[in-house]
Amino acid sequence: MRLSDRLHAIVNLVPKNSIVADIGTDHGYIPLYLIENEISKMVIASDISEGSLKKTISYINKLNLSNKIIPRLGDGLDIIKPFEVDTVIIAGMGGLLIKDILSKDINLTDSITNFVLQPMVAAKELREYLYQNNFVIIDEDLVKEDDKYYEIIFAKKGKALVEKEIYYEISKKLIEKKHPLLKSFIEFKLLRERAILSNLMEVETERSRERYEELKKRISEYERVLEEIEG
Fold first, then answer.
1. Cα distance between residue 165 and residue 155, in whole Å
2. What dotted CATH number matches 5-161?
3. What are phi and psi of 32, to 5 degrees?
4. CA quadruple 192, 197, 202, 203: dihedral positive or negative?
5. Could you tell me the CA-to-CA distances from 156 to 31, 87, 134 in Å, in that order?
6. H-helix or E-strand containing 97?
7. Which residues have C-beta within 8 Å of that of residue 115, sequence separation ≥ 6?
8. Which residue intervals of the chain are DSSP H helices?
9. What are phi and psi of 178, to 5 degrees?
10. How far is CA 14 from CA 81, 185, 214, in A?
11. Are 169 and 151 contacting, i.e. CB atoms less than 8 angstroms apart?
């Protein structure tokens, strides 16, 4: 099975010989790839949508993989038991929803070793949650697909300090390895923030002035990161 660049970046972060729960599996492409390429020993493919799960089940039956891929209908991590899997994939959802899924049952979450997370939005808020709730970000990847950037986070349980606030916005891991897409990603963010800043100049309220100063500071931080990766 050929995956999109986004899905391929996700499976690349899944540890070899893992037992995986793919939360929000949709059509089941990730579980199928993980089994067909012998990355995972077993995958639980779950979705809250019965229609999506039926498509996954159809693939499973067609390829005779019912002993390796287990479909489950349900919400978030409710479909697994403590220590049933060592790796969880939560992709294609908002960062705030991913945070809610991880925080719903802490005992269950604590029984999982590896977390591969791909927020569609609110990556900053997700990183803040991870750092503040005993997770360590081990690695990150960045993908551009159809003119949209996707951030993929690989985390484990543990403790880590964040030296700079900007690392919530821009992954320290991506900066350290000077990811080839990072420069264009930051330039994209700068373009957006400068447009907002320009609009705020025309609004005279206390909140708009506060927002203006916040954006100026963030833009300056983005520019410093650009200098770092270009240097």
1. 19
2. 3.40.50.150
3. -60, -45
4. positive
5. 21, 9, 9
6. helix 95-104
7. 87, 88, 90, 102, 135, 153, 154, 155, 156
8. 5-12, 29-36, 50-62, 95-104, 106-110, 123-132, 166-169, 172-176, 182-200, 206-230
9. 45, 60
10. 20, 24, 37
11. no
Residues written for the chain = 231
The residue assigned the tokens 């949508």 is 49
Indicate the residue type of 12: N
> Taking Cα atoms as reference points, which of 40, 112, 42 lies closest to residue 83?
112
Q: What pLDDT, on a 0 to 100 scale, did the predictor assign at position 207?
A: 83
pLDDT tens, residue order, the chain (231 aa): 789 999 999 999 999 999 999 999 998 999 999 999 999 999 999 999 999 999 999 999 999 999 999 999 999 999 999 999 999 999 999 999 999 999 999 999 999 999 999 999 999 999 999 999 999 999 999 999 999 999 999 999 999 989 999 999 999 999 999 999 999 999 999 999 999 988 887 777 888 888 889 999 999 999 999 998 887
Residues 6+ apart with CB under 8 A from 75: 48
Per-domain residue ranges of the chain: 5-161, 182-230
